[in-house]
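Try this one yourself first.
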């Protein structure tokens, strides 16, 4: 929906379904989404945990520590892993789109076509927008989640270092993940910058895309509503990712510490 801003939720679902039914919703999953999820998850958890632990030791509040940890982790994962892996997912989706129109190319052929035309910069196209998105994504998710955890402790009369139950932690992460979608315009800009669908030629679309001119282009074409296109499914995604990377990750970190 972020790439096809004229479509409704139903139309977007039908478009994806037409690419192969249920399988259409999993394009690019194996191996590129698996590689992206595992590498960026590892970078995020390590970086965010180190920053969060360090700043909490300096007396900073858990909410501010979560914000700083998430921002640092998001930036690290964007530049370390996401340029290449996001490009490869785009390649897979493009390859399936071409197949429906009778053009048969392998993943490697599509990838090399990008490399020959645009080089390394083409492979990492939109990585700055990804970095801004991930910085605001995880900074907001972790910051809001920790802030909500503090609020729940206050309501329940618990001290700052008392543990919350699983349900409370999941609730805090759900609220954090939902509130973090305020930055949907950055996601729409990122999708537009990485989109390979130039066949839908638009005279107003800048030839060389930057974050700023892409933002202006989308706003001119679709208004404020276009900048928040696709926010509903992203709220669901944000909730799930925050539960995994904040609530569940806290339990993983405790388990690791007991093993040391």
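Now uncover the answer:
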């Amino acid at each position: 929906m972020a790439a096809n801003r004229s479509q409704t939720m139903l139309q977007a679902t039908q478009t994806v379904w037409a690419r192969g039914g249920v399988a259409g919703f999993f394009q690019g999953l194996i191996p590129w989404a698996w590689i992206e999820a595992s590498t960026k998850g590892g970078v995020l958890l390590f970086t965010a945990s180190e920053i969060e632990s360090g700043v909490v030791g300096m007396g900073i509040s858990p909410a501010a520590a979560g914000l700083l940890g998430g921002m640092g982790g998001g930036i690290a994962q964007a530049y370390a892993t996401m340029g290449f892996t996001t490009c490869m997912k785009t390649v897979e989706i493009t390859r399936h789109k071409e197949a429906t129109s009778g053009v048969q190319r392998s993943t490697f052929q599509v990838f090399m076509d990008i490399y020959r035309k645009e080089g390394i910069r083409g492979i990492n196209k939109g990585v700055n927008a990804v970095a801004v998105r991930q910085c605001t994504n995880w900074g907001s998710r972790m910051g809001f989640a920790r802030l909500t955890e503090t609020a729940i402790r206050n309501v329940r009369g618990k001290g700052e270092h008392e543990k919350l139950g699983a349900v409370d932690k999941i609730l805090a992460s759900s609220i954090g993940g939902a509130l973090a979608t305020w930055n949907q315009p950055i996601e729409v800009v990122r999708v537009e910058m990485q989109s390979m669908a130039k066949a839908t030629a638009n005279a107003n679309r800048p030839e060389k895309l930057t974050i700023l001119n892409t933002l202006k282009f989308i706003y001119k074409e679709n208004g404020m509503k276009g900048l928040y296109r696709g926010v509903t499914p992203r709220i669901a995604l944000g909730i799930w990712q925050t539960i995994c990377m904040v609530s569940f990750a806290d339990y993983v970190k405790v388990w690791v510490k007991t093993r040391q």
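Discussion: The first helix runs from residue 9 to 17. The CA atoms of residues 43 and 77 lie 5 Å apart.
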